[in-house]
Structures are given as C-alpha cells and as structure tokens.
Amino acid sequence: MNRAELIAAMAKKADLTQKDAEKALKAFTEVVADELKKGDKIQLVGFGTFEVGERAAREGRNPQTGETMAIAACKAPKFKAGKALKDAINA
Q1: Does this model's pTM top 0.85?
Q2: Quick one: 21 exposed, middle or buried, by C-beta within 10 A (0-12, 13-18, 19+)?
Q3: On the CB side of 82, how many CA atoms lie within 13 Å of its CA?
Q4: From CA 57, how far away is CA 70, in angstroms rounded?
C-alpha cells in the first residue's frame, strides 16, 4: 500500500474527504517526527510504540572493495508493535 492508497482507505474508513484524510496523515507523521527528534517516545496502547534507538559506532566493509571503513554512531527510529496489533495479525 502506498501513500495515496492509505489516504483513500483512511478517508473511506473514517468517512472523511480525501483532502481531510491527507491532512490527518500529514499531521500524524509530522507529530511523530517532531517527538522523535526531541528524543521522546510515542506509545499508542494496543497499536505500538515509536521511539529512538541508538546505534553504536562500528567498523564495516565496503562490499565492492572489501576494505574496512568506519561507520559513525547514529540515532534511528524504531517501532515496536503492541500486543493487540500482533494478535490481530496472527488471528
């Protein structure tokens, strides 16, 4: 499912116009991104948790040349599915 299909499905499910569904999706993604930038986590009970994870610096290899290279430490977004979502998928 791509963004346009998601917007259409949200509009149909919530009985909204596609324009309103697009605004709601954009607002949701912006709020999630802003909170993660601050280092906070977002917990939606029954759905899951969005949070920031730390990746340590490490050495990697260039797959073309095989030479080692340094990979810097960074932060990465993580999503952990909630129990209700896992149960719905496995039902």
Answers
A1: no
A2: buried
A3: 11
A4: 7
**Distance set, CA 33 to CA 14, 19, 30, 59 (Å):** 23, 21, 5, 28
pLDDT in tens, the chain (91 residues): 999 999 999 999 999 999 999 999 999 999 999 999 999 999 999 999 999 999 999 999 999 999 999 999 999 999 999 999 999 999 8
Name the residue type at position 81.
A
Q: In the chain, how long is the greatest CA-to-CA distance?
A: 56
β-strand 68-71 against 58-61: which pairing, if any? antiparallel
